[in-house]
Amino acid sequence: MKQPGTRHKARRRAVDLLFEAEAKRVSPTQLVAERREYVRDDESVGTIHDYTATVIDGLGSDLDQVDAVVSSHLRGWTLERLPAVDRAILRLATWELFHAVDVDPIVIVDEAVELAKELSTDDSPAFVNGVLAQIAELAPQVRAAAAAGSGASGADVAAAGSDADDDGA
């Protein structure tokens, strides 16, 4: 079996932190800051990889938009009804699809499916793949809009795209 890479580990840690923050009802960015403080006193806590912090910080700023995008691509589900780990995986991957321009969208979806296999239910990998495949179709538009500085948010472009394609996951 192939060993997970650094980014995979960073993504998994991000999912863990998103899950924990939601369970504790605290901000994920606050949780990362606390962990970074703990590491100064106790190295057993483990450092937070820069990529993990980048994703968590990005989600902290864009969570409402990310949730709107994910919600607009759910069929027969609401975001609140999803298992918490699936919600964390979908949030992470959606943010990456729109903002991690150095990563191919296919890789992001594959990584999310792998995380769902590792962390969630037997049905979750297919569900996560279906939702993210729809969102990934919008990634080039959102990335281009961001690069052009058009002011259109990921949620604006994604919502427009989801209206046009109602296939469902």
Structure description:
Helix 1 crosses helix 3 (50-72), helix 3 packs parallel to helix 8 and helix 4 packs parallel to helix 6 (124-136). This protein is 72% helix and 0% strand. Mean pLDDT is 87; it is low at 152-169. It is globular and about 45 Å long. It has 169 residues and is mainly alpha-helical. The protein contains eight helices and no strands. The protein starts with 5 loop residues before the first helix and ends in a 5-residue tail after the last helix.
Give the strand tally.
Answer: 0
Could you give the distance between the termini? 29 Å
What is the number of helical segments per DSSP (H or I, 4+ residues)?
A: 8
Q: What's the main sheet like? A: none
Structural class: mainly alpha
Quick structural gist:
By secondary structure, the chain is mainly α.
